[in-house]
Write a structure and sequence with these properties.
mainly alpha, Methane Monooxygenase Hydroxylase, Chain G, domain 1, disordered C terminus
């Protein structure tokens, strides 16, 4: 029981591959225990119900007590198996939440860099303004380069502000605070 309680806290605080292995180990042990107790319970029950004269009434009382203990252990094992199954669900949810946070971060970073990459790509085409007056006259401006960098910074800051207002940048922090409470 204590191992399952400790594992539950580990699943919530820091789900890892080792945590998953521990869950499977406990699950295997519970299954082995169930397989060991089940036939004993049935054997004891058949001895109790057997009308043979070889088993005295005192022994039958003892066997009923053993049978009750076997049933009780089976119930405990089943309860622990259900708890471990719940731990597996919590583990999968925690991993899924972690993955969602990572995907959200990657989406924000990509959303910021896609327009910046487009602007840098357009200005990186090396147009020749001497051949045609329609080819980006700002390439010859004295402040053209700083202006382009300023526009790129403005786009990035605007997108960050937009994501912050939508709550995309703060949810991961709040999620971590909720977990550690």
């Amino acid at each position: 029981g204590e191992r399952i309680d400790d594992l539950e806290e580990e699943v919530i605080v820091n789900p890892s591959q080792q945590t998953l292995q521990k869950i499977y180990q406990i699950r295997r042990e519970l299954l082995q225990l169930r397989r060991a107790i089940w036939p004993q319970r049935d054997a004891i029950n058949s001895l109790i119900r057997d009308g043979s004269e070889l088993i005295s009434d005192d022994v039958r009382i003892y066997l009923r007590d053993c049978y009750d203990h076997a049933v009780q252990v089976m119930d405990i094992v089943e309860t622990y198996r259900e708890l471990v199954a719940g731990l597996m669900d919590v583990y999968l949810s925690a991993i899924s939440n972690k993955m969602n946070e990572i995907m959200k971060l990657l989406t924000v970073v990509s959303s910021i860099f896609i327009p910046l990459t487009f602007i840098a790509g357009v200005y990186g085409m090396n147009f020749n303004t001497e051949k045609s007056p329609h080819n980006m006259p700002e390439l010859n401006w004295y402040w053209g380069y700083p202006l382009c960098l300023g526009v790129m910074a403005l786009v990035a800051i605007s997108l960050l502000y937009f994501f912050w207002r939508r709550g995309w940048l703060t949810n991961s922090v709040n999620f971590q605070k909720d977990i550690h409470r």
